[in-house]
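Worked example 2:
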Amino acid sequence: MNSEYEIRALNVKDRRTRLQVEVFLADNGLRLDAVEQYYGIFRLEEDDLLAGGGLYRDIIKCVAVRQDLREERLFNMLVSHLMSEAMQKGYFSTKVYTKPENLDIFTSLGFKLIAQSPQALFMENSLSELERYKNYLRVQRQEVTGSEMGLIIMNANPFTLGHRYLVEQAAAQVEHLFVIVVKENLSRFDYRYRQEMVAKGCADIENVTVLEGSDYQISAATFPTYFLKQVTDATDEHIRLDLDVCLRHIVPSLAATGSHFTRFVGSEPADPLTARYNQLMHEVLPSNGVRVVEIPRLGQNGAPISASTLRSTYNLALLYPTSVPYAIGVFAAQALQEELDLTPKPGLIDHQDNGAHGDMNYAVMLRSIRALEPYFIQLAAMGSTLALPTAQNIIQCGLAAEKAMLSATNGVNTHKGAVFALGLFCIAAANSFYHLQRVSSDLVCKAIKAMVQEIPSAHNTHGAAVRELYSVKGARDLAAEGYRPLFEQWLPYYREHIADEHVQQRLLLYIITTLDDNNLYHRGGEQLAHEAQQRCAQVLENFDMENLQALNDWMKTRNLSPGGSADMLALTLFAAHLIYNI
């Protein structure tokens, strides 16, 4: 029978193909959800879509077979193919999100029910990972005593004073409180950081246990709209599936026989999705024996404390103190990402091209940033104490960061200058916040000067050769001055032009014109470096995208890349975030 048909991978990014799939799914009462790949079954040499299904990591989605062909066993053929594709990608257990009428079909293919809602099922063909997680929860439960148990499930992106307040209030109402951190890595702060932040932030509360997350609770499988933060017609089904996972698997694993169990949640005055989640929680859980307590959100200056507000305003004062180094480190990496994403730029890597670089590209730069992020956090943690760290400790962490960078980039030096500049700023900013509960430009400048005095000058580097040959300042010289141009020129320029659509590109040009960029001197010598500065000044005076692109072309043909200026752009954005919350 199968010789009549063929399975094709469909490119749903192609407008025409996507429309074909969307129409097919709509005819079968479905819509196209987020998938990494979609597959269709066709008769040989024909283009009518007979059956289709998508994969998102290990999750089968959007499966449908044309109604008049549902006796042709195309469903089995399609699902078997999807399972095989998932296995080839390294997933040895496959999940499915499907309609209730498909229960028997998927059961016959070896899938087992994990959760259900009125219009959806969540199934998996192996429950070994779920059972492992449930056993882990049971062991954690056995470590505590009492019959009044409570649970909070939080994303903590990042862990704020509001999260701490919620935990404190909940812990006061039960004998023991469990906190599960959402594992899904679709948040700005990586799961490992969120897990550490919550654990450190709750460490002094005796009756609280912070637990690992799982792929089942508030995950992209059961609750994809949570990570899009929008309410759709599928939202209620996602919420009900997630609550059913909690009722079927989480609560029984954490609650002893005869115990009382409470699910705690913070009130939500702003986010419609979270507000709807809370509403359905009140409707679903109590009828299944789980009490729901909604705790009013902690406020500050007349507004509720929110992790999303912190991410948009960079206001470190909203954080629980042990979370501060994580936020500073992540914001440092974010500043590098902002510089990388700025497009177009003269002679530098961006979304458009590789500038004057033949040994690196956007993907390499991205790997470098991700590799450096944990070291920025470590450096910020060094500064979150009464005294500044020793030069030896700073150098050791810096060298470890460079090693991780080179490992991620196959030996290409992508961000060595940025590690030095942003790393020092991470320490100084964290130390300023430790002392003043804010990031002070004066204290940051003073701290950087003090640290650099103890750090020896680098030798046998391109920068050292440029300084000696052309008598210009290098990275260490700038730091020894406490980055005076940053505070006296670049930050004021950025703040003055913040409303301009192209402020970051203008700022980059301004930095190039005011900085002895060692990269320009190394690549082009003194004459070309000066000409590059003059051309940047001209484009800045007559700014438009056409002139900027022409400048990029000119720099590429002369192998000029203002890498030092790019580092200072990232540093300026980072400083603006932390000092001025912009």
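The CA atoms of residues 115 and 178 lie 22 Å apart. The chain has three domains: 2-126, 129-307, 314-580.
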